[in-house]
Structure formats: C-alpha cells, structure tokens
Amino acid sequence: MVGGRRLVPAAFMAAALVAVALSSAEAADATASLRGASFESIFAFGDSFTDTGNNPVVWGWYNVSDEVMRPPYGITFFHGHPTGRNSNGRLIIDFIAQGLGLPLVPAYQSHKGSFRQGANFAVAEATALNASFFHLGQTDISLDLQLGWLEELKPSLCKTDQECKDFFSRSLFFMGEFGITDYHISFGMKKSMQEIRAFIPDVIQTISMGTERVIQHGVKTVVVPGMIPSGCVPSILIGYADSDTSEYDATTGCVKEPNEIVALHNSLLQDAVEILQAKHPDVTIIYADLFNHVMGMVKSPEQFGFKRDVLTVCCGGRGRYHYNMSVACGDEAATTCKDPSTHLFWEGVHLTEAAYHYIAEDWLNTILSGLSSS
C-alpha cells in the first residue's frame, strides 16, 4: 500500500524486474530521484532478513551466531569476510541504503562509531511478540526491546523535542519483517494451524503499535514489510517431508498451510497499514511486499537467472533441497554452490544477495512512489 491505496501483487511483480527492464539511463534517473528524497539516515528493526551484524553480539553465548561469522557467509560482496549477515552478500536494507546514497546501516550492538546516518536494531531470531509468549526461555530480542534500543540511542542524536522531530522527519524507518520467527518457532513446536491463526492478530497489533511508537518520535516515512512464503522455505519443507502430496502446491512444490498463515498475516498487516495511514495522514506508511516477489521467483526462476530446482539451497548439507538440519552453512561438512547468483535460497531460510537485489529494486521504486503521492 502506498498512501491510502493498496497495491496489487501484479504491480509488485512487474516492478521486481526493474533491474532488467530499465535501461541504464532510466535506472540512473530513478536513483537520482531517490537521492532527491533527501533522507539523511536509515533506522531499521527486524530479524535476520535485516540484521547487519547484531546477532554475533546479542547471541554471542549461543551457537546461533557462530555460523554467520564463518565463511562462506559474505563471499559475494564482502570478499569472504563474514559480517553477521545471513546471506552470501548484501541484504535488502544494504541495497536501499546504497540506492539512497547512504552508507550501509551499522548494527547498533557492534558499531563503535556515529549513528547520525542511521542504526540497525534488527537481530536474527527476533520475534514480534515477547519471548515469554513462546515459553522457551530464550533471550528476548523482540520488537519491544529493539524499540527500547532506539530510545536509548535517541539522546545522542538530538537534544530537544523539536530537534528530535526534525531529525527523525528526515529519516527512513523500516519496521522489520516481523512474524517470520514467531510462526517458524510455532511450526517447530508442532502447534496446530488453528493455534497459530489465533495469535496472528497479536503479531499484527504489535507491529502496528511499534509503528505508532516511532511516529510519536517524529518519523514521517515508515516501510512496513510483509512476510516471505514460509511454505517455500527449505527448513520448513523438511518438516513436511513425510506429508501427503495433497499438502503441497503442485505448481511450486511449496507447502500450502504455512503459506496460508503468511497470506493471512500479510492481508491483516496491509489492513493495519491502511488504518495507520488514515490515522496519520501526514506520515507516509508503505507496505512492502516480500511474499509475491519470492513466489514469482519460485514460479519462474529462469526469469531471474535462477536454476530450475529453485527450492534447493546454495549452502548446506546432504539431503533434500541440499539442506540438512544437522549441518549448518559454515560447518566443515557443508558445501557451497559454485555460483550463488543462480540460487534463490542461500541456506535453509535466507535468500541470496541476487534475490535480495531484485526485491530491493522494487522497494526503492515503491518508496519513491509513496513519497511522490503523499
């Protein structure tokens, strides 16, 4: 949704091919226009799809951080130097920062310099709901905690209320892609689809309240991303390995029920964005699509330069989809494909830099459209 209008999936998918469809001159014009938006900083919340290096610090005591700090993570853009990103290279947030002429957004927990041009509060494994909801005893790295980090940082960015409102009015905010971990944890706990559907409104309310919270600080532009199609994610597919064929979508090989959960989440999230936009007409609140982009790549991988076995990961262990729950990417036993740019999935959950690039191109154009119509 841009402004008060909901964008149809076809529009998103057409824009996803912008990197191929636009001439070099047109692409340069689009980038110049985006830089003309005059964002001076980017602030982001979220999970591993946005995390640029917080997880090794936050999860330092636990092996969830180990693998992303070992090769082959970072092999594409960062020349083999792992940065804590869950990919072979840049994430969507990185491409957007570059498109706006800003530096890559530094991770709040690991960066030692200035945050005047933005901060990334996203952490791998982050949930929308507080950790206590899942009764697993894990560290709470929920949206609420990340918003607290912003408020902890705020006094170093501005002093008076008006100065802060002016500063944040020139900033671009990303309200994560929350919900992925909430639902994936629940899938792993074997919760029924009925149980999961029951708390989707709580996830949506949490994201909505988080968006309201940053608006109160003076933020004027917020991007609220939807979710990826979880039913196409290799680590989720493995959990359905013994399921009846009727549980799969015959055209994509994805599992139906998890994707139905995500579709409901995304629909309710778009409704929430429309409500927020009506409540705050002076704020540009943009729903950014993930689901339809990834589904487009799954259905037509060749159009994006991906291999036909599009659900097979680039980095993993022996097994279906080149995924093995006991062999993480980064382990000695793991193997990596020769060319990550020909794959949609980097490992069990996350995408390759190539996939993120296609998505980022559309998000940049969506942001520009949102600003021009507001």
SSE arrangement:
Elements lengths: L8 H8 L1 H4 L2 H12 L5 E5 L9 H4 L33 H8 L18 E3 L22 H15 L3 H9 L1 E5 L4 H9 L4 H23 L5 E5 L8 H5 L17 H24 L4 E5 L2 H9 L15 E2 L18 E2 L16 H21 L1
Parallel strand pairs: 1-2, 1-3, 3-4, 4-5
Antiparallel strand pairs: 6-7
Helix pairs in contact: 1-13, 5-13, 9-11
Structural overview:
By secondary structure, the chain is an alpha/beta fold. The protein has helices spanning 9-16, 18-21, 24-35, 55-58, 92-99, 143-157, 161-169, 180-188, 193-215, 234-238, 256-279, 291-299, 353-373, and strands at 41-45, 118-120, 171-175, 221-225, 284-288, 315-316, 335-336. The strands form 2 sheets. Strands 2-1-3-4-5 form a 5-stranded parallel β-sheet, sandwiched between helices. Strands 6-7 form a two-stranded antiparallel ribbon. α5 crosses α13 and α9 runs parallel beside α11. It is globular, with a radius of gyration of 19 Å. The protein starts with 8 loop residues before the first helix and ends with a helix.
